[in-house]
Structures are given as C-alpha cells and as structure tokens.
Amino acid sequence: MWCWRLAPAGAHLLAFFYPRLKRVISVELDERLAESLTAKLGNPPNLAVVQADARTVDLSQLIGNHTTYKVVANLPYYAANFIVRRFLECECPPTTMVLMVQREVAESMTAAPGGMTLLAVATQFYARTRLVCAVPPTAFRPSPKVSSAVVRLDLLDSPAVEVSSPDSFFHLTSFLPGQERSLLVKAFAKLNLCLEIMGRRSDGYHEVRTVMQAIDLEDEIEIATSDSLSVKCNDPALNDKENLAWRAAADLARKAGRLPTVSITIKKHIPVGMGLGGGSSDAAAVILALNEFWELDLPLASLVDVAAGLGSDVPFFLWAGAALASGRGDAVEPLPTKPGIGLTLVCPGIRLEAKTARLYSRLTRFHFSDGGLTRWLVQNLMSGLYSDELFHNAFESVAFEEFNGLQEVFDAVEAATGRRPHLTGAGPALFLMSSSQEEHARVIDALQPHGAKAYFVRTLGRNRTPSPVAFSESKNTHVFLSCGEN
C-alpha cells in the first residue's frame, strides 16, 4: 500500500506510518524538508524520500512493480483535480485514495446525482466516494479562512459506466447544464527582505537582486463559472480591465486557446500601493486556480510565461515561500525558508502616484551595489538565520524624500523597538522582526498619532499545512507527495 502526501506534516505523519507499513515513499517538493525527513527518522530501510513535484513526478517510475498501493494526500486547491485525475487515469491506479482538500472540493467530489458537478462525475466515474470528516481551520497553524475535509475514494474494478472513450465522455459532460462551479483561493502578500539595484540595463530597465518572502497577510479570491470574464473587488478602484487578475485570466485563456469565461471576485485584505505585491499575488493565484478550474493542465513553464508577461514579481507568487529574484525581478529561484517567523508590518496612510518610477528617477550610480548584500542574506537564510541587520532596501535612501510623513512613521517604530525598520518593495510599508506581542503592541501605540496601521504577520513556506489524518494499521506500502501551498 502506498500513500501520497501533499504539504508537509514534518516527520510526525511519516513516523506514524513507516513502522506499520511494508514500504513508504514520500515525495516532497521542499528540498530542505526532503533532506531533513530521513535524518530525523533515522533513515529507516522501508522509507524512501523523493524530492519532486507531485504534479510532474513520473508516477510509473515511482510505482514500479507495486501493483497494489494506496494514496494519502493533503491536496492544495490549485492542484487537487489535476493530481487526482493523474492517479485515477494512470495505467496502475491505487486501490484507495484518502485526501484532505478544501471542503467545497470534497463536497463536490462526493455529490449525489442531481447535484453533481464535472468534478463529481470525473471522480465517481472511477471510484466510490465518501466524505470522512470535516477539518476546521483551527487544525492548522496559521489558521486559514477556509474549511477542509477528508474524502475517501475506493477505486472501482471498472468504470461506473461503459463508454467508448473516457476523454469524449468527459468533454461532453463539461457542456451539460448545471455545471456552475466555484473555487475559493488565497493570495499572499510578500516582503522584500533585501533589494539591491545593480545598475541600468540596455533595455531601459534596472538590474535588481532581491530576496522575497511570502507572509500570511492574504486576499481572498473566488473563481466561479460564467459566460464572460468579469472581476469584482471590494475596492471599487480595482473593478476594471486594468486589474492584473483580469489580465491574468485573459492572457491565460489566450495561451490555452479558449474563451476567458469566468467570474472573479476579490476580497482585498492586503493594503494597496504599499509595496506588498497584492495585485501581483492576486494575478498569480488566478493563474494557478484557472489552470485547475478550466482543466488546462498547462505545465509550470507555461504558467510562468503568462505570469512574467504581467509583471516582474508575478512569477514569484507561483512558488511563494522565499525566493531570490534577479534580472528585472522576473528570474526566480526558490530558496529554503523558515515558516512562522513573526514580523511587525507597518502600513502608513500615504499614497503616491507612479511611486516606483519616481523612486527610480531619484537613483544615481552611487545608489547601485554589486549584489553582495543579497548574497550574504541568502547564505544566512540557507543556514536558517533571520535578522533585521541582514535586511536592506536601496530605495530607503530616496523614499523619505518622496513619501511625505514616512520619516515620522519610521522614527516612531524605531523609538518603540530600538531597531530600524526596513522598506519593502518601493514602499511605503515598513517591516521588522517582532520579538514579542508586547513589542508589537508598543508599535501600535506609537503609530496612533501618525495614522499608520500595524499588522503582526508570519513568514510562510511553500509547504506549511499539516495533515492531521490517522489511518488503520497495515503492513503495506505508502507513498507521500508534496506540492506547493494549500
């Protein structure tokens, strides 16, 4: 029996399984996690840890000559349908799949006739489905704003209905009435832990080196079936075709050769115009969600192409976690990250039109650097060391001249903490590591005269959600997978 797990639970879940099973194969996307698992568990002979992406890993190579196996997975919203279909339709499918997914996905998989969506038809064509239990947000740290559920799929010996071609059957089913669906996804903010400007390029852009880190401040996005493309937002200023989410849907549809028929509703929690990447994150979340929602199954390289066409930092949000970005900021290399580090984020009540262009226009060659500060930060991050003293932003030398009132906010934070905050992106948001909730409270008090707002946030990893699922003992083989944010 095999189990595939998506999103890490550290070594705890594997420690439960491997003494009880003949063989366990854990496929982990996060390189550092993959390296640490076997070390933490003492390198048991019946445990194999493979560093790979569940969306692209070669199933036939992993399955090998094991004809009987089971899958256990905690599936992220944007990959659930695609990965489940991979297993259901492969040459050697599992006997059972036990999955934790977003609750509405679980309810869709297990829907009864009369309320079945395309996902229900596709799943129940191959398997008997059963909703096992609900998983509340409090089961996770940090707690998401959506509920999850565990669903069990027991594979049928043959498809539930006899058809000449499964592909033709599913294609026809997708056009039947009553296929209205929706999907709730999250888009996370980012911080620039380090941002260096290395000079001006021949194409007119600036060469940058930056380390970006995702944090748990998030927008909520609902994707729903529609006969046209629309974007609605609780910020009326973002209800137009210039919204990056609109462009993301239109560009992805163009890439896939289909019409952009979808309704997108955005509930903004990430402050706009602060250097937190909210619009870019929304666009990346839409790209990932629509790749599943429209069942495009486009490879990651194609999604990166679409993201890069929208803005230099959009590709980062396809991975989130921590990453080193270079070039214009669109060449992204994921980095190991340490989730759960507390930070105080300060958002001044300051808005500046065309802020990025105005800040760049103030830079001279004396503001340029060689990337050494970024390299030093990366070396420390690789060792798990985070420190305010390692952070840097080249725009800090010119931002206070452009943002009226930013100096007063900066001084208030420094006085309350005894440490210098740092600018993120082109600002005006500031951040610093938070030593305690008490220190964060002092910052809030210090900011009251300045009309600025403070948030207590935590760093996010690419895989941060535990999988609180227990199973009966069995001396069989299990496989676990890891694949991105849940």
Automatic annotation (TrEMBL):
It comes from the Eukaryota. Coiled coil: none annotated. Residues 2-157 form the Ribosomal RNA adenine methylase transferase N-terminal domain. The keyword ATP-binding applies. Keywords: ATP-binding, Kinase, Methyltransferase, Nucleotide-binding, RNA-binding, S-adenosyl-L-methionine, Transferase. S-adenosyl-L-methionine binds at residues 1, 28, 53, 74. InterPro entries: GHMP_kinase_C_sf, GHMP_kinase_N_dom, IspE, KsgA/Erm, Ribosomal_Su5_D2-typ_SF, Ribsml_uS5_D2-typ_fold_subgr, rRNA_Ade_methylase_Trfase_N, SAM-dependent_MTases_sf. PROSITE patterns: SAM_RNA_A_N6_MT. GO terms for biological process: terpenoid biosynthetic process. GO terms for molecular function: 4-(cytidine 5'-diphospho)-2-C-methyl-D-erythritol kinase activity; ATP binding; RNA binding; rRNA (adenine-N6,N6-)-dimethyltransferase activity. PANTHER family: 4-DIPHOSPHOCYTIDYL-2-C-METHYL-D-ERYTHRITOL KINASE, CHLOROPLASTIC (PTHR43527). Belongs to the class I-like SAM-binding methyltransferase superfamily. rRNA adenine N(6)-methyltransferase family. This is 4-diphosphocytidyl-2-C-methyl-D-erythritol kinase.
